[in-house]
Amino acid sequence: VQFRELLDARLPDRIAHELARLEAMRFESEFHFPGIAPHAPHTVSPQLLEAIVGASRKNAIALTTHWAESQDETDWLETGRGPFAALLGESPRRSGLDLLEDAGLLHSGLALVHGNLARPAEIARVARAGATLVHCPASHAFFERPAFDLRAWHAAGVAVALGTDSLASNTSLDMRLELSRLVAAQPWLEASQAIDAATVHGARALGLQGRVGAIARGAFADLLAIPAAETDGERLLARVARGEFDVPYMWLGGLSVPTSERSGA
């Protein structure tokens, strides 16, 4: 899924520029599924958010946005205080989730990235909306955020996908490494739950349920083979969840593709 990010910093000239960019976007593609990424509630104006919702409905495209990532973001949105005040001007005095819901973005087609400072009532709202939460363990550690309350999201029934964020706050975009970071930070998490975060919930975050993330009838034949000597399924799952595997064989669309990681197994 190719997400095109939009950000106007709530500045009038930037708003007009980004609205024009959105209007000029073409979403037809034979090879990619299109998506739009309004950067975050504090960096995207209500006008642009509403226009993005209109475009997403018209073109049936995936949506993702950063949300509740930092205290500075929350402080400016809700009180107008903090370092963002000098950059973003007058505050809406609303929560980021309120702004997303006001614009019509809070629904099952939205992937919310981070959610570090989500309150219990907000987690419940995300659950009711059917949106997906994307947790990025390496980025979370890079910024030295407080411990991520993954249990609360699981208890609310929210699908939590695993993400890498970007190389600005990560040393690698390797999902195996991200899996290992997830289980290290959340030792209570079952191996199957960690793997679901990297597969089926990731597919949900991209709007590709049933097409990727699982070996199933009707899904793309995008597969990798993991060499294993274990006969115990639980131990094998645990090893995969810890990122302890090579990828000697891989298929995309049913066609074998080369990989540099060869194994004798």
Which features does this protein show?
six-stranded parallel sheet, 9 strands, 40% helix, alpha/beta
Compile the SSE list and pairings.
Blueprint: E1 2-6, H1 12-24, E2 34-38, H2 46-59, E3 62-67, H3 71-79, H4 85-88, H5 96-103, E4 110-114, H6 120-129, E5 132-135, H7 137-142, H8 150-156, E6 160-162, H9 175-185, H10 191-198, H11 200-205, E7 223-225, H12 233-241, E8 249-252, E9 255-257
Parallel strand pairs: 1-2, 2-3, 3-4, 4-5, 5-6
Antiparallel strand pairs: 7-8, 8-9
Structure notes:
It is a single chain. The protein has 265 residues and is α/β, with parallel strands linked by helices. The protein has twelve helices and nine strands. The model has no long low-confidence stretch (mean pLDDT 93).
Q: How many strands?
A: 9
Number of helices: 12
Helix content: 25-40%
The best one-word shape is: globular
Low-confidence parts, pLDDT < 50 over ≥5 residues?
Answer: none
Strand order of the largest sheet: 1-2-3-4-5-6
Class from secondary-structure proportions = alpha/beta
Kindly report the average pLDDT value. Answer: 93
Instruction: Profile the largest sheet.
Output: 6 strands, parallel
> What Rg do the Cα atoms give?
20 Å
Distance between the termini: 33 Å
Strand content: 5-15%
Output the helix-strand order.
Answer: EHEHEHHHEHEHHEHHHEHEE
Summarize the structure.
With 265 residues, this protein is an alpha/beta fold.
